[in-house]
Design brief:
alpha+beta; 6-stranded mixed beta sheet; 3 domains; 5-stranded antiparallel beta sheet; Phosphorylase Kinase, domain 1
Length: 617
């Protein structure tokens, strides 16, 4: 089957950590942020802060003081000055469409103008935090809150269809997802932001052409989609595969968003293994959500109609927040307070077996430690649950956590080894939900293979640069690989000790390390410790990512020596690519049987009977 051409595009919603940039790129970023800040100060704004960045630009917030009145809070969207003109023009398109939208839950356009060659979009700022941040802090949102958010979102979608406005074409937002919904905790209102993927719809909700002009109907304009690619973690099939733009696109984004918030995930893909009917939602709503996310196009349309028509009625149901016990982690999760800032990065390897047989390989030439984080199309060729599993692993990296995990799929079930150290105890509930989702999704994957993932602090990454690709990388004399020391009891059973080399060479890693470094790693392997080291060699830039904890303080001298030997030998690295090694403290493997999906669990018909009476256990 020919793969749709739209999948060849890269969608890059977020940049890699600033701590992984080369010195030159980090300086460019800093200079660019200062330039934007200066421009906003010249316009009279104060309290300027960068609140978001992506492949195409940056978003800033600022406050405009007004005498005798409340200060105005605005958001500013800048495109990167280095982008081609057609991408700068998209910001003007975004401004034009946003100007057409009139809804109390959509922050208004203030202005669009150019400062020299720099286009700037100015909008009202919605109060609160985006729902992805709320989800990461809280875990699964309560069923009551999900219904309240769903009702507001349905109201926005009905407004965008503009069925009552004669002559006005429906608008497709094109990128509805939790991070594009700002949540005001005080009154639980949402606001839909970021209209960068918005277009005027080509089809109406009944899939009929909207243009009344016969010649336009016959032209190529309505044979080719005008849709833009939203976040592939949330958009539906029609938008992903280049269908003509329709209000139905936003129904899919809304369904994916509500599902993600209700389940504590960061994507739509987990609905087969963790269906909406298992999340404690009202039965009618849960079944509707599963139908909207399901594979049957006719059922999706019917469920979408039901959502927009019946959501006001469903929202009138009296609901209360039922007490939920804190989730129990399915695998060990350790918490320790850390005085250090943690900027977690996830590096996953050995994932090609998750792809379906015969799926096209389009990313073979991309070998980057953060591929998972900002090239989301690497998952093409995978089933829904496999995608959801990888997204669940990536979500762990949104927390201040260090460690690693290994999942082995066998015929009888899955075997999971983890070393997860969370550095903020206040996030344990939400983090545990994310970990448990990952395990449940893994249980629903019926394959055989091994998957490994390392979670490290990008702030500890070492950077070595060279002037020419044929020059050696040379570590400065003062450079050291960081590590921590803590005492741990001796493991009596040596078979429980992990090894760097226990699974053999990783077929997905292309950097071949010199024997000198391998010899030092073999020596390190005999010392009791836990951690990982990843070498990422680019033409002019070598990154050494690491996270080490020595468990035998008496061996610190030898441990330090081996790490120094590794650094001294980086001048022998000649290839490009990534090579990583991980060693967990000791084997504490947990077994889980395969599952098809989690069992049904609904919000009770009479919630007050379920809620404990105050004063009673």
């Amino acid at each position: 089957m020919k793969q749709p051409s739209q999948l060849q595009q890269f969608y890059i919603p977020e940049e890699q950590s600033v701590y992984l940039l080369s010195h030159n790129d980090a300086r460019k970023l800093k200079d660019w942020v200062e330039l934007c800040t200066t421009q906003l100060k010249q316009m009279g704004y104060t309290d300027i802060a960068m609140i978001g960045k992506g492949a195409y630009g940056f978003v800033f917030s600022g406050r405009l003081p007004l005498e005798g009145a409340r200060d105005l809070e605005h958001v500013f969207k800048f495109t990167r000055i280095t982008l081609p003109q057609h991408l700068h023009d998209r910001l003007e398109d975004e401004a034009y469409i946003l100007e057409q939208v009139e809804h109390p839950r959509v922050p208004r356009l203030i202005a669009f103008y150019r400062a020299g060659k720099q286009p700037i979009l100015v909008m009202e700022r919605a109060p609160g935090f985006n729902l992805e941040e709320v989800s990461l802090q809280e875990g699964r949102l309560s069923p009551r809150l999900i219904i309240h958010i769903a009702d507001q979102l349905a109201d926005i979608l009905r407004n965008l269809r503009r069925e009552s406005d004669n002559g006005k074409r429906p608008i497709v937002h094109g990128d509805i997802k939790p991070s594009n919904l700002v949540f005001d905790e005080e009154n639980e209102n949402i606001a839909l932001i970021d209209w960068g993927s918005s277009v005027f719809a080509q089809l109406d909700a009944n899939q009929q052409f909207l243009s009344p002009n016969v010649m336009e109907l016959m032209s190529d304009n309505l044979q080719q989609t005008n849709a833009r690619l939203g976040d592939v973690y949330f958009i539906g099939e029609e938008q992903l595969y280049g269908g003509l733009s329709s209000p139905r696109f936003d129904e899919q984004g809304a369904a994916a968003t509500l599902y993600a918030l209700a389940s504590g995930q960061s994507c739509r893909f987990g609905h087969q293994a963790i269906p909406a009917t298992s999340l404690g939602l009202p039965m009618e709503f849960a079944r509707m959500l599963d139908s909207m996310l399901g594979p049957d196009p006719t059922l999706r349309l019917r469920a979408g109609d039901h959502y927009l028509k019946e959501m006001p009625r469903m929202a009138r149901t009296v609901m209360i927040d039922l007490p939920e016990p804190a989730p129990i982690p399915l695998v060990p999760v350790w918490t320790r307070l850390s005085g250090r800032e943690i900027d977690t990065v996830v590096y996953s390897s050995r994932k090609s077996f998750l792809r379906q047989e015969g799926a096209p390989e389009t990313l073979n030439d991309v070998n980057d430690v953060q591929l998972d984080r900002y090239y989301k199309n690497f998952m093409q060729g995978m089933g829904e649950t496999e995608k959801a599993f990888l997204a669940a692993v990536s979500r762990l990296g949104r927390y201040p956590v260090e460690g690693g995990l290994a999942v082995r799929w066998e015929a009888d079930g899955i075997y999971v080894d983890t070393s997860l150290n969370l550095h903020d105890p206040a996030l344990k509930k939400a983090f545990t939900t994310s970990v448990n989702n990952m395990v449940n999704l893994a249980q629903a994957i019926y394959r055989q293979g091994i998957f490994k993932s390392c979670l490290f602090n990008a702030r500890d990454t070492l950077h070595i640069e060279r002037d020419e690709p044929d020059h050696p990388f040379v570590a400065p004399p003062e450079m050291r690989i960081p590590y921590q020391v803590s005492s741990a009891p001796e493991v009596e059973d040596r078979s429980r000790v992990h090894s760097y080399f226990e699974d053999g060479p990783d077929p997905e890693e292309f950097l071949v390390l010199p024997q000198t470094i391998i010899t030092s790693l073999e020596a390190l392997n005999t010392i009791r410790h836990t951690g990982m080291i990843i070498f990422e060699a680019l033409p002019l830039h070598l990154k050494i990512h690491s996270q080490y904890r020595l468990l035998d303080p008496d061996k610190e001298g030898e441990f330090r020596l081996r790490l120094d030997e590794i650094l001294a030998a980086v001048d022998q690295i000649t290839g490009l690519g990534v090579s990583g090694f991980m060693k967990m403290p000791y084997k504490d493997t947990r077994f889980f049987p395969h599952i098809e999906r989690l069992p049904e669990r609904y919000y009770p018909r009479n919630p007050r009977q379920e809620a404990p009476i105050e004063g009673q256990a």
